[in-house]
């Protein structure tokens, strides 16, 4: 130690300090990890302490200033500069931060390592980096198994950080529908139910379709669901009856995403939720827990967008979707298939 500054050496992806660092840095500030004879710091921890004049770092006997160390760290560790920006921000907000199974684990305000469990696992992402669905789902599963919340820290090109939380969401409603249907016709890209009483019954009882002139215009996914449930009998314009399989085949020719949307629509309706198009909000569906008839339509609670298992998220698109959902008092949900089941991923803004 020289003039109260603790000296250490850069070794691979770590900075190794002597035993005197254990009390001052580890016990007092929860920096690093004790090892035999000293303290081991990650590169971001070392950069943070070096910038504050708490430590000195040498490489092959030569002292490194902050610039030299930072440049070396970026060549050693991919994504170092983004992790450093997030680490520094969280530390300056008063959080204890340590390396974790994702990029970091963060302790709640008033908590610290050794006294309280961590609250968040943090995954750091550059706004320019496309993120696959798997890259979100895997750390989310790990976080859930460890009883932690997953924080996504997205660093933009100006090094500002937007924090999101990603978590599994269990969606349930209380809209149990008992409605009679009738015979409807598949037209060019939608289905028309002609009977006025059946049309009113379906719309008022289950908020299906768009009424007009005593008739009910139904979307393809609504129609497929009602056909499967034997509420509707669907014919084509020649009068030929369509089985659920034949209707689905024709619908796929009309709408590329039909099958994916149908699976999600079916699951949501089976969960007693009311599902309508979310086109105006840039998503597949807007979803209500309950609708008490067409004269008492509340705000929908969720925006749900179906994604395939190989989906890649582009973060500016996610940012727009989450911000829009928040601005209209809804929660942004992404629906995916996993092991034959529909699962729901909520992404929401987080203010640490």
UniProtKB/TrEMBL annotation:
<keyword id="KW-0819">tRNA processing</keyword>
<keyword id="KW-0456">Lyase</keyword>
<dbReference type="InterPro" id="IPR036167">
    <property type="entry name" value="tRNA_intron_Endo_cat-like_sf"/>
</dbReference>
<dbReference type="InterPro" id="IPR006676">
    <property type="entry name" value="tRNA_splic"/>
</dbReference>
<comment type="similarity">
    <text>Belongs to the tRNA-intron endonuclease family. Archaeal long subfamily.</text>
</comment>
<dbReference type="InterPro" id="IPR011856">
    <property type="entry name" value="tRNA_endonuc-like_dom_sf"/>
</dbReference>
<dbReference type="InterPro" id="IPR006677">
    <property type="entry name" value="tRNA_intron_Endonuc_cat-like"/>
</dbReference>
<feature type="domain" description="tRNA intron endonuclease catalytic">
    <location>
        <begin position="258"/>
        <end position="344"/>
    </location>
</feature>
<feature type="domain" description="tRNA intron endonuclease N-terminal">
    <location>
        <begin position="184"/>
        <end position="247"/>
    </location>
</feature>
<dbReference type="InterPro" id="IPR036740">
    <property type="entry name" value="tRNA_intron_Endonuc_N_sf"/>
</dbReference>
<dbReference type="GO" id="GO:0000213">
    <property type="term" value="F:tRNA-intron lyase activity"/>
</dbReference>
<protein>
    <recommendedName>
        <fullName>tRNA-splicing endonuclease</fullName>
        <ecNumber>4.6.1.16</ecNumber>
    </recommendedName>
</protein>
<feature type="active site">
    <location>
        <position position="299"/>
    </location>
</feature>
<feature type="active site">
    <location>
        <position position="330"/>
    </location>
</feature>
<dbReference type="InterPro" id="IPR006678">
    <property type="entry name" value="tRNA_intron_Endonuc_N"/>
</dbReference>
<feature type="domain" description="tRNA intron endonuclease N-terminal">
    <location>
        <begin position="6"/>
        <end position="70"/>
    </location>
</feature>
<feature type="domain" description="tRNA intron endonuclease catalytic">
    <location>
        <begin position="80"/>
        <end position="163"/>
    </location>
</feature>
<comment type="subunit">
    <text>Homodimer.</text>
</comment>
<comment type="function">
    <text>Endonuclease that removes tRNA introns. Cleaves pre-tRNA at the 5'- and 3'-splice sites to release the intron. The products are an intron and two tRNA half-molecules bearing 2',3' cyclic phosphate and 5'-OH termini. Recognizes a pseudosymmetric substrate in which 2 bulged loops of 3 bases are separated by a stem of 4 bp.</text>
</comment>
<dbReference type="InterPro" id="IPR023516">
    <property type="entry name" value="tRNA_splic_arch_long"/>
</dbReference>
<dbReference type="Pfam" id="PF02778">
    <property type="entry name" value="tRNA_int_endo_N"/>
</dbReference>
<feature type="active site">
    <location>
        <position position="288"/>
    </location>
</feature>
<comment type="function">
    <text>Endonuclease that removes tRNA introns. Cleaves pre-tRNA at the 5' and 3' splice sites to release the intron. The products are an intron and two tRNA half-molecules bearing 2',3' cyclic phosphate and 5'-OH termini. Recognizes a pseudosymmetric substrate in which 2 bulged loops of 3 bases are separated by a stem of 4 bp.</text>
</comment>
<dbReference type="Pfam" id="PF01974">
    <property type="entry name" value="tRNA_int_endo"/>
</dbReference>
